[in-house]
Amino acid sequence: MIEKYPRSWDGGEWEQFSLRLVRERHGAANVQSIPARVKGDLGLECITTDGCVYQSYAPEETGDTAKAASAMRAKANRDLSKLTKNQDKIVKLLGGMKICRWIMLCPFLDDKDVVTTVANKAQKILASGLPFLDADFRGLVHSQEDFSKEIDRIRLEAGGASLILKQPDAAELADAWNKIDETLEQKIGRGFPRLNPDQANRRKVGFIRTHIRAENALEQLKRDAPELWDKATTAIALEEDRLETSGTVSGAAGDLLTAEQDRLYQALASALPSLETNAIRAIAMGQIGTWLIECPLDFTSSASISSQ
Q1: Helix H or strand E encompassing 135
Q2: Tens of pLDDT, residues 251-303
Q3: Contact status, residue 118 vs residue 139, Cβ threshold 8 Å
């Protein structure tokens, strides 16, 4: 079963998604993001023209409620304290506008003690007399549940939008290389015995790169359009079942890989008619690499392909 809202997020990705949610709610023209590259973010990730400020936070711990709540409370205390520490800079930044809400936006909220901590800390900050705080200043904690309408709109838009085909970085390639290097090397050796070592290495890197790129694309679908992700993974699973039950198929390795890629592309295009062609092609290409790595596809020593 697909979870309604994913709990586990990379900090940078959650920051970007949070900003997207805020812009969806308040209107892009009414939201000012605060760059953190120079001298930090002042405890304010973005400001809205109606006096709300947001700070996003994605706990690393998602399964242990107590640990996640502890991290959230610590984050809120640190960042609310920045309002006092950075008050001179914040006054200039706001230009006379007053803050009425400080909102920590998290992927999930399980423990009411986090809400209490943020509310109490905000009241202490208000009592200190900061000139840019409205008399009705409050500290709140919001999660994806509070932005359900905005998320629904984003998901609806994602149905016909382009996926960002993220290229694997050096760390991702190195991590995958360490895990699957030997398996893939053996399969390429069986399927393409005439390649010299440099050519075989490039082929291996290519399979790994397309595999990671497809995984990244599917993760985006799972996050932004879970209905499409479900259709995509179902289509992939059906094709994988076909491979695993079809038995040995003879032929040149390159031709067979191309045929399997085209077959999967057609299955995905039929299941995901609203998704752009490049995204479908990238997922299909990457899934061939995944199947080689995880064994639904393999080569015999005579450069034929079989299911295992």
Answers
A1: strand 133-142
A2: 677 777 888 889 999 999 888 887 788 888 889 988 887 877 776 566 555 44
A3: yes
Q: Taking a C-beta distance cutoff of 8 angstroms, is the pair 155, 4 a contact?
A: no
Domain positions in the chain are: 11-153, 169-306
Burial track 225-261 (b if 16+ CB lie within 10 A, e otherwise)? bbebbebbeebbeebbeebeeeeeeeeebeebbeebb
Give the end-to-end CA distance of the chain in Å, rounded to a whole number.
Answer: 27
36-50, 127-141, 147-161, 290-304: least confidently modelled range: 290-304
Quote the CA–CA distance of 24 and 282 in Å, as a whole number.
Answer: 29
Q: Is the pLDDT of residue 249 over 60?
A: no
Cβ atoms within 10 Å of 175's Cβ, excluding its own: 14
- Fold type of domain 11-153: Trna Endonuclease; Chain: A, domain 1 (3.40.1350)
User: Alpha carbon of 261 to those of 29, 160, 212, 236: distances in Å?
Assistant: 43, 23, 16, 11
Task: Give alpha helix (H) positions in the chain.
Answer: 11-26, 65-85, 87-94, 112-127, 148-158, 170-191, 197-224, 226-246, 253-271, 277-294
Q: Model's pTM, two decimal places?
A: 0.59
